[in-house]
Amino acid sequence: MVDPLLRVPQPTAAELAAEGVSVRFQGLAALSEVNLTLLRGEIVGLIGPNGAGKTTLINCLTGFQRPTTGRVALAREDTAGWNPARFRKAGVARTFQAGRLFRDMTVAENVEVTGVGLGLDRKSAHSVAMEVLDWLGIADKAARTAGTLDYTDERRVGIARALVLPPAFILMDEPAAGMSDSEGEDLVGLVTSIPTKFGCGVLIIEHNMRVIMNVSHRLYVLDGGRTVAQGTPAEVQANPAVISAYLGADV
Amino acid sequence: MINLAQNLIDALSLGSLYALVALGIGLLFSILRLINLAHGDFITVGAFALIVPSMEVTAQLAIGALNPVLLIPSIALIVVIVALMTDWAVFRPLRRAPQPSMMIASFAVSYIIQNGLIMIYGARPKNVNLWPALTGQLSIGPLRIATLQIVTIVVTLVLMAGLALFLKRTSYGIQMRAAAEDFRMARYLGVRGNLVIGMAFGISGALASAVSLLFLSQTGSLETGLGVPLALFGLVAVVIGGMGSLVGAVVGGFLVGFIVTLLQAYLPPDLRSFRDAFAFTFVIAILLWRPAGLIRAKAFDQRV
Description:
The structure holds two protein chains of two kinds. Chain A is an alpha/beta fold. Chain A contains ten helices and ten strands. In chain A, a hairpin with a 2-residue loop joins strand 1 and strand 2 (28-39). The termini of chain A are far apart. The A-B interface holds A 84-85, 88-89, 100, 102-105, 109, 112-114, 116-119, 121-122, 125, 145, 147, 161 and B 169-171, 174-175, 177-178, 181-182, 185-191, 297-299, 301-302.
């Protein structure tokens, strides 16, 4: 029997990049000339104070926001004119700050529908969904209606949905926001194993400095829509611009 | 006691018809946010498709004379095609239009269909005797039940169970449910918008065709406004059941059937001709009690 997964084209892109991306909302600059590269297999942290443009950047990288100037390239190919669904099909998945689950459907169905949307039949979509839910530790809640989940589990279902048919890249917008410190650390602990388990590159926005410095291979620091620093956690922590613009404020 | 049982069966049978109409309207609303005022006219088209097109007052059965095994799918197919063509010609170009514009467009479709039927078949009502075998009665103990009522109830239950299974078990079904809850999110996850909308129109048309056959068998009278009151009561059922919830549509359909039948049975005789005024008073009372309908779709809480 042919593995049903093989009938669905697997994403092959090895690099997702923002190249000189600027976004202006009615003259207000949300992002200015931002460059960012995400490779498969690495975890990249995206940090910066509120309003720095982090979510806007993720929106650009996933097709939810069109750059005013500059471009987003997937495997060096220009993605101008792509809609979010095309990004998803090409292997760029994301999670949302608000869970945005289908609240009247079960947890399993929420994840299954992604597999079906990407071309799996119902049965394979179900087994793929259960596998991911199991990995995230919520397989026992598969039959629950999504609208009855607590906040932490809602987040996990959102991540499961993004991990179905392993994408090439997963972009996570504050997956641990609103969780207690220990819940957040549990979740981010799972995130660290995503590259080896699913083979994707991870871009993650996270406010807990200790956590993000621990999990990230590299970091980008945004402030006021500009990249103020980038590099390894050690480099970023030593960067005077970061200390004054960001870390200096609350550490 | 026997009287009460008789009234309950009348109520179930009428409620079944309203529930089928409400499901057809509710399904399109849940996916497209379209209040389809032409749904009643889909029902009318299904009834007229049974006879030879002509202005003659005496109707001649064409498809209506076929064996039910051929008749039912033929009528279903015709109504499904009309529904899909309506989507293609009218609603697809209006996909990004605001909800009131779509509703007015459906109102226009309703008039176009009715006037088109008048042009082809004439405006005078015609008598059609579809399936005379079903006009008999079954005796269960002291109860005498019209065969057609049993058929109506059974067909409705089968169609509802079929639809529920379809929505729950198939890949199309899960995509339709996702689209009904959050159309944009579903599209992002790869659900094809036009496909699920087309499926909704198709299923809505198929449900309408079942109502065409059941209703015409009961009344025997074919006229171009046949579906209009059905659509009105179906729409009321959708609203009191809770817009966006298919379970709500079914509950609302049965509830409207019960209210109308029981008023008909128990109002004092001189008030019976004002039955609908009393029925709609109940509707207002239900809406005052639960403005969002009896069953509220969770998806709607979130979107506000």
